[in-house]
Every structure is written in C-alpha cells, then in structure tokens.
Design brief:
This protein is globular. It is built from four helices and eight strands, in the order H-H-E-E-E-H-E-E-H-E-E-E. The chain has a six-stranded mixed β-sheet with strand order 5-4-3-6-7-8, sandwiched between helices. It has about 190 residues and is α/β, with parallel strands linked by helices. Helix 3 links the parallel strand 3 and strand 4. Helix content is about 25%, strand content about 25%.
Length: about 190
C-alpha cells in the first residue's frame, strides 16, 4: 500500500518543462495579423483565396529580474539565460530589461545587434514589484507581455496591468494576478 500511495502522489504533481511554457507564453503574446499575400496554402484547392496568419514583425516584451537578497546569484543567472533563449527564438525583438529589488536599479533595451544581457546584479535589498510596473507606465511602453523572474516575496500592485504577466517562480507563493510557471532551483 505504501508503494501505491507514493505512485499516486507522483501522478498528482507532474513536472512541466517551464522553459517550453515560457516560450509558448511569449509566442502567444506576440501580436498576429491576417495577410492576403501569400494566401493560406491549406485552402489553395478551393477557387477562393483565404488569408494566412502572419506573426508580428517585432517581438516586444518586458523582462524583470528580482535582484533582492532572497534571490541567489544562480537564480538571477538562470533568468538571464532564459531571456537570452528568447532572443535566440526571434529574428527581430525588443526586450525591455529591468533589474529591481525595492527600486529599479537598471533599465536597458536589448535589440538585435544592440544592447546586451546584464552581466552584474544590482540591488540585493528588499522586494517591491510595483516599481517595474510604474516604470513601464512612466516610459509609456506597450509590451506584449511582462515576464518577471522572482521568488514572489514582496509587494504587488493593487491593480493588474493591461498586458499579460508571467511570473517565473521557484517558490510555492501565489501572486495576485498573472500566470505562474514554477521551476526547481539548480543545486
């Protein structure tokens, strides 16, 4: 009976590939549009031209890195690596990067052949998520989505933003809005 109980526990907590979920979230947030040229090839056998779907020309997202004292260097380094992975997925992108603990300490724009992922972590104080959302609003940015790498220990905005938010967490904490993907810490 103990063996069966362990098997059931294993089935109730499946392990998802959080990197695939992150990639799918970013891709689904990219604006799409219909176009007539070229027509949709699936319908060429019909004597009517049907529009095809075209991905947006530029992927524009915001990425925020929690650089508070509760985030290890490995946690931040893994987050930087995932943003680099997003950069490799798309030919044309704009990534607004924010390093924030209780305040935004670094903001940079990364585009193809311009800008780079931060190499040094700035912060290590307490955690407040509101400054990133305020900075996005202050700069009048319109990202397709915000991906926030954090442990979710901090103060959240009272009102969720108009754009989708994905919280990439290594804790069991539940943010008040947005989608959550969890990953295991590297030991």
């Amino acid at each position: 009976p103990g063996r069966i109980e362990a098997l059931v526990k294993e089935l109730l907590h499946p392990t998802l590939d959080w990197r695939a979920i992150l990639r799918d979230f970013v891709i689904s947030s990219v604006k799409t549009d219909f176009q007539m040229s070229p027509p949709n090839r699936r319908y060429l056998w019909i004597p009517t031209y049907m529009p095809s779907m075209r991905r947006g020309e530029t992927v524009e997202i915001a990425a925020a890195f929690d650089t508070s004292g509760s985030m290890s260097d490995d946690d931040v380094r893994n987050a930087f690596s995932e943003v680099k992975g997003v950069m490799e997925q798309f030919a044309d992108f704009t990534i607004h990067c924010f390093m924030c603990d209780a305040a935004v300490h670094d903001y940079r724009i990364i585009m193809p052949y311009e800008g780079e992922i931060p190499k040094r972590v700035v912060g290590r104080g307490g955690t407040d998520f509101r400054p990133v959302f305020q900075e996005i609003e202050r700069r009048e940015l319109w990202p397709s989505c915000l991906v926030y790498f954090t442990d979710a220990w901090g103060s959240f905005p009272e009102v969720p933003p108009a754009y989708p938010v994905l919280w990439v967490l290594h804790t069991d904490k539940k943010p008040p809005f947005g989608e959550v993907v969890r990953y295991g810490r590297q030991r």
